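Let's practice the habit of predicting before peeking. Look at the sequence and jot down your guess about where helices and strands might fall. Then scroll down.
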Amino acid sequence: MKCKTTAELQPLTEIIGQKRAIKALDFGLNIPEKGFNVYVSGIYGTGRKTAVLKFLDELAKTKPKGNDWIYVNNFEDPYEPDAIALPPGKGKEFQKDMALFISEAKRIIPKVFESEDYATKREAVIRGVEEERGQLFGWINESANTKGFIVKPGPAGLMTIPVKDGKPLQQEEYQALPEEEQAKYQEKQEELLADLRTMYRKVRDLDEKEKEAVDSLNQEVALNATGHRAAVLKERYSGIDRILTFIEAVQKDIVDNLPQFMPEPPQQQAGQAQQQFQHPLFRELAFRKYEVNVVVDNSETEGAPVVFEQNPTYQNLFGKIEKEVEYGVISTDFTMIRSGSIHMANGGYLVMMVEDLLRNQFSWDGLKTALKTGKVVIEEPGERMGFITTKGIKPEPIPLTVKVVLIGTPMINQILYTRDPDFSELFKVKAEFDTVMDRNEENAGEYASFICKLCQESNLKHLDNSAVAKIIEYGSRLADDQQKLSTRFSHVSDIIREASYYAMTENAENTTKEHVEKAIEEKLYRSALIQEKIQEFIQRGFFLVDTEGERVGQINGLSVMSGGDIEFGRPSRVTASVGVGRSGIMDIEREAALGGPTHTKGVLILSGYLTNKYARDRPLSLSARLVFEQSYGGVDGDSASSTELYSILSALSGLPINQAIAVTGSVNQKGDVQAIGGVNEKIEGYFEVCKAKGLTGKQGVMIPASNVQNLMLKEEILDAAKKKKFAIYTVSTIDEGIEVLTGVKAGERKPDGTFEKDTVNYLVDRRLKEMAETIKEYAVARK
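Done guessing? Here is the structure:
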């Protein structure tokens, strides 16, 4: 880095080290075809979420805004509210416009019906009907007179009373009349009753005519009162047919329910039904049907919506229908529909962590259904599963156009791909985040720019060039590769923040190399209790590990233990015992159910190596036992297979192994020593043991030559190696390794098939021949 501190750099503006993933994101998020949703695959700490959200924020600005969505009352079927799309920002506008429209209607309609003009028109309508009603009563009176009767109102309606000589007859007078005269009166009365029935029917028709005339007048007056404002609304939303239809439905409902707009119903219409409208609660609920429920508002968004759902429960994702209790009755309506994150992301992008999504079974199934059908349905999870629930509303589904981005691990991707047939159809694009990137000048510069950005955003002390160099070195250490840098920026950021803290406590101007080193050491120290306990047990002799001297059939193997947030190397004693027999190599760890499958594979390879090298002209007559001493928690991995082979070769040849050298590396059947993982931790773990017991200058480790490029050791070990207090040996074959451990030449096979005399291979081959002869002689003797 040419500058003195990161304060002189430009902060990072791009995503670094993930070109493959960014290319996949760019493709998956831009292709419009159905099913090309994106699964972002990577391990924790690689900046998957940060990178995705940053990429989407930039991409969304170039895309059009999503629509607003509203739910309104369906006046034909209130149980199925209508969903209407509006241009972005128009949802709240229409909500306010409708509230103002109803408010004006509530104010104007009562005034119109209280006006003199309305009273005059209404009186004229009623007067015309009353005149007809009067003519009808005149006709019935005339008919009664011609038939010798008068009609008078009574408790049960109109009564017909006979008249004689111009005087109404009393009951006694009527009964005193001759029967013939009474019969004539009865005949005329029947005719009069028929006329009365006709009159009653016509009166009812007149009543209906009066009601219809008044209703027609009321409707005409109400329409005239609200027509201008409704026309303004229609003009404002002229391009949206469903809004125009809704406004017309509102007008019709207002006309059909005028009493709810009246502070006091007219005296002629007063009754129990009208009185119910005057209850404050009823009036509030009655006007709710004219409200507009804005479930998606994109007025404030810049470009397409981007939604990250942190807790994708079913209701958070797909919305819900709330309920309220009034007087012990549970009720709901369209105003209680609440949107979910998938509604908010409609027309844009929805991002979720797949682990959180899969923890909610209904959410995963619901998401697949929505993506397959292209619709979002708001319903209770119980209804979706077919359970019986209380009766509620069924909102109209909303068309869905969204890109879903799931962020998860490679393992979950593999599980979903192989076990869920819908996954490969719905998530056709995989954006895979790598854990490392090349260590070159360009990427090192971007690393420094990343540090600059982190310091600015988190208000940290800027790093000087020595601290930046140490961070880059730490990045290679995280990658376990000299030629790579780790992209697990969360781990790198933690070290930078901690180093900045130490710089602030010292009132330093900038974070230096010493602060970074302290941060790394302190982070290790906080988690290294178990490692220190093991080293103490080795130093005190509880765990038997020799760091000097020579032993036959005994060697120090190196393994890695994990403590969750820390991995450290632990040396373990590996021993081999051999004898005459045909059972081959027995893995005691496997027999005790403590050996994992890859460790068992490594041990089986040893038999292949011995057979290939020493049993070309005779059967392999060997009975050997291998074990990791004082191992109680299980062993797995094949990184100790070369170590175990060295112990067997030592036991067969009788040559002692230098106990000061610890060994790691796997082996194949041809004797090639292969690379292993955790080489830095293994070397450092053995170094700490040797340091505790005292460095003699003869101690060291032997590793595969192919692991040299992975070495990113502590400076303390490098200094010890420079001072020849600790050595690191690299080998490519078993023959090279056995020479280092025994100090004896391995020995090449001569043209006659034998090995050079007094070499390791010669001694092993001779011992195996002797075992074969012993078995042969024993078999003959038994016969």
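How did you do? The chain is about 50% helix and 15% strand.
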